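Fold this complex.
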Amino acid sequence: MESQPISTVAPADHDKHELTLIIHAPRSPDPKTFTWTKTTKVGDAAKEAATAFGYAAGNPGFQTLDSPPRQLDNNKPLVAEHLKDGDELEITDTGGGV
Amino acid sequence: MVPAETTVIIVENEMVGAQAWAKRRNVALAWVPERLEVRAVFTQPETEEPFFLRGWFPDYRVLPPVWIFTDASWSAEPGPSFFPRPAQTPFGGSLFTTGNGPVICAPFNRLAYAEHRGPHGDWGGPIGWVTAGQAGQVKAHCIGDMLQVILRDLLHTRGRMA
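Structure:
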């Protein structure tokens, strides 16, 4: 009986459970790459990234690099923000004016 | 309080990240060390008009910078015609307010403090700028982060204060 070939095709994005994103911070010349599960909340991912860049306080969130940028909702999971592997985001503080 | 040559070293160290940010955001950004000034040109999407943001950094980081909007020659005193008209943002109230004059109202701006004619006598003075403000209010402790949140709110404005 002939064996079935093993597929070497990577799973489509929608089949993966993780997202790999490139994160920039306004204080750093170099980005960092993070992999999160798609169900990770944007705010939790932003806090983890902010900590890695040395932010010790504040209310971190993510913006896209579009012009004008799109602000991601800290309360939504990453998957709900229609991100794909390799997308680049910028850390921004989401605190209000005073 | 802080020797100018020390301030230059501190600012130039932070400008490395800020310049990378400016390139990503298509912002013209310059550092003028002999004047201890950072200059950035922002474009308001609604009007496509330029806004000239100037930061003055004597005694930085003991004290926060002095941030204003000025004219294209970088020399005018802050006036309402140089400031964007504030609008509600997804983050809450705008950073751009009027009190004794137009001001970028954030703990990282020396002019936001009552000691410098700003509206805030409740922040313990500019020497405590890194911890000033309530939870949920804007925080920015490096030049790139300050520029980012000022641009963040400017993108929601429409027109000028006057």
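The CA atoms of residues 78 and 132 of chain B lie 24 Å apart.
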